[in-house]
Amino acid sequence: MGHKTWGExxxxxxxxxxxxxxxxxGTLVSVGAGRAGAxxxxxxCTATTEYRYAMVIPGTPAVTATQYRVRTRAxxxxxxxxxxxxxxxxVDGGTTSVAGQTVAGHWAAxxxxxxxxxxxxxxxxxxxxxxxxxxxxxxxxxSLSAYGGPQVVVHYDAHQVTTDDGYTAWGPWSGWSTDDPxxxxxxxxxxxxxxxxxxxxxxxxxYYVPNTWDSTTLTDANxxxxxxxxxxxxxxQRTVTVxxxxxxxxxxxxxxxxxxxxxxxxxxxxxxxxxRRDGTLHGHQVRAKIRIGGLQPGATASGTATLIGPSARxxxxxxxxxxxxxxxxxxxxxxxxxxxxxxxxxYAWVISADGSSTRxxxxxxxxxxxxxxxxxxxxxxxxxxxxxxxxxxxxxxxALGIHASVRTVGSSAGSMNVPGGAHTxxxxxxxxxxxxxxxxxxxxxxxxxxxxHPGALWNLRDAARGQVVTLDGHRFRVRSxxxxxxxxxxxxxxxxxxxxxxxxxxxCTGRESLPGGHFHYTRNLVVxxxxxx
Length: 533
Hints:
The strands form nine sheets. The protein has an eight-stranded mixed β-barrel. It has two helices and 32 strands. The longest helix is centred in the N-terminal third of the chain and has 8 residues, at 6-13. It is mostly beta strands.
């Protein structure tokens, strides 16, 4: 029996095409199935895009300084003493005080048998306008301290000459200093130079490594499915399959024949997205299972699974963004599909095969973990003043005159870490980020400082329904104002990470005066606002 061509096989089987019926949450979908024996059962197919990220840490320019050195000379008085001393020389560097005047240079021991000339500027300072008395001319001994040197007795040889130059010769240069001596004069000359105090630091490129320190080299450890915000940027990307031989190229479906039924549903209805310290989120896989049955032994069914979302509504609209699409081919049994998500909200799998499609139900919900917060300490107790610090305003309530900078804060021991500066508010990193589709964004700040001077949220006491709040460019409208005793835990619902998106502002109210000029706030003021669509 000779070999048959693929066209002959197709011609004989074209009339045997049957519908593969997929039952998804009660909905039937026609799906093409493979002829028994035409192909072996393939493993479940999942494909994920991985990225490698880099960030450039800006360097710093070199820090330089200008240094100066000077040399001086003195005016002559008609005569000039030429005096040499044995074994000591006046050299460059530093300064020396001579008769109360500062001269550039310093005394240093020289060769014991060599005569060195004392600079004329020093001679002129010592004797002044009256000139050199004849008694000191010739040879003799003198203490070098008379010329600004150490207490050392030296031999000298001196004689006097008449001069009309008007100035002594220039003395040696002083040491380098950052003191600017000013412009040159008849008796002073200056030189300058630029020196590097701190060398320049070049830009440094670092590479993201999931769940650990970043690296300075690019390796396989840098691959991640995380979606990172700027200033991180993508260096390269790749598509990775979870199971070998599971990607089905377009145009390579099995030869249709047989009849099967499929049903699907997510393996979990909720996934929790881990939160980094800065409030950004790690990705998490959203999975679904496609159960296939009714196929002839060895036959396979193929199709696509598309994940759409996130959506603020449990019923994810068809217009929701597409996370990605996974192609699958599988025989009787269960095919698993998964894609990574990084944003909170509702997601839905759409299964398509043979021109028809349906959704897996119920949809999956991705959310932040609920913060374990019971108290928000936004009121000081005491009277010691502390200074606030301003940054770029990010929270604004124009009707109340509130404009405050916002810092990212965490929590400890069930208490939110409210910024210490009374003029800065804190966004709880584990709560919803402004503009997310679900969950509560929690922002808290002090009503006053330790001396009861107004803090960032001092005017929040006048909040009223309908006022507009802007946080990081997102607009909200005040819906309710309430207060709770600080001695009791705040309602857990204020920190929900699921449900409709909203903004909760928390500060203190209920001021009580205490003996000794102290004060205390007894209640938390809570303002709830919802997004303006």
